[in-house]
Amino acid sequence: MRYRYSRQPTDSFLECAYRQVFTIGGVTLYFIAAGHMLGSAQVVMEYEGIRYLFTGDYKLQDDDTCESLEVVQADVLITESTFADPQVTHPDPIAEIRKINDQPHNILLGVYALGKAQRITSLLNRHCPDRRVLVHHGILPLHKLYASMGITHLKYEPYNRREMKNATTDPIYLVPPMTFNSYYRATNVIRVFASGWKHLQRLNDMDLYISDHVDWNDILDYVVQVNPREIWTVHGNGKHLAAHFAGHISVSALCSI
Question: Which among 60, 70, 160, 187 could disulfide-bond with 32, CB atoms 3.0 to 4.6 Å apart, if both were Cys?
Answer without folding.
Answer: 70
